[in-house]
Design goal:
247 residues; alpha/beta; TIM Barrel; 11 helices; 8 strands; 17% strand; globular; binds pyridoxine-5'-phosphate
Length: 247
């Protein structure tokens, strides 16, 4: 099985910084630590309201960090211009407004086709690897394929937020979605809400190539340190894929 990459989302380091204003804790320092701890990429969401990551953070991450940067962004002209300016390795298009979402919370790639198509195309032309954050749903996967996005990120939020049979149902949908997505030629990623308790069944899904994890790791950093929590998450991912080797 191919090695599963870990993208570390540093948004909530910026959330803590912004609670007081000022300069610390510095998300770029967190990105450096994540790199030292074995992260394969850094993920940051520049929200329209700038509630955590700022424009200056994106500029510094693009300039100062050697790892691939995955910019999470809404499908707006403003965000497109920022992405085209910095040309991150990847851009993951996420919903920010209720009407852009499906019931579970992924972007409605099927319903938003006309709005997404030019944005996906412009990013692709600029050699930014486009990912669509969607539900593990055939209709959404088909829409991602017809939009020409090379990557999808499957939303694991409902799986993480539920328990018992309900969680199992969401897990099964993610397994089937990952297999279907890969059969369409899409590279499949997953994320949202993952923790030490929930990561292994997702990491064990063979078609998934990358996980993006943030909030839990930043929370654990309070108790164990950021590097230690990233290393622990990496260990759990590797335990779920015992045959992992670098790709
Ligand atoms: N993937 C996407 C597309 C997201 O929007 C987020 C949250 O910003 C994450 C992954 C990471 O989720 P969490 O912070 O809950 O680990």
């Amino acid at each position: 099985m191919t090695r599963l990459r870990l993208g570390v989302n540093i948004d909530h380091v910026a959330t803590i910084r912004n609670a007081r204003g000022g300069a610390f804790p510095d998300p770029v320092r967190a990105a450096r630590l994540a790199a030292e701890a074995g992260a394969d990429g850094i993920t940051a969401h520049l929200r329209e309201d700038r509630r955590h990551i700022s424009d200056a953070d994106i500029e510094r991450l693009a300039r100062e960090i050697d790892l691939p940067l995955n910019l999470e962004m809404a499908a707006t002209d403003e965000m497109l211009a920022i992405a085209l300016k910095h040309r991150p390795h990847a851009a993951c298009i996420v919903p920010e407004k209720r009407e852009e979402r499906t019931t579970e919370g992924g972007i409605d790639a099927a319903g938003q086709h006309n709005r997404l198509a030019p944005i996906v195309a412009r990013l692709g032309d600029a050699k930014v690897r486009v990912s669509l954050f969607i539900e593990a749903d055939k209709r959404q996967l088909d829409a991602a394929r017809s939009l020409g996005a090379p990557v999808v990120e499957l939303h694991t939020g409902a799986y993480c937020d539920t328990t018992g049979a309900e969680r199992e149902k969401h897990l099964q949908a993610i397994r089937e979605g990952a297999a279907y997505g890969a059969s369409l030629g899409l590279e499949v990623h997953a994320g949202h809400g993952l923790s030490y308790d929930t990561v292994k069944p997702i990491a064990a899904i063979p078609e998934i190539r990358e996980l993006n994890i943030g909030h839990f790791l930043v929370g654990e950093a309070i108790f164990d340190g950021f590097g230690a929590s990233i290393r622990r998450m990496r260990e759990l991912m590797d335990e779920a894929r015992p045959t992992s080797r670098p790709n």
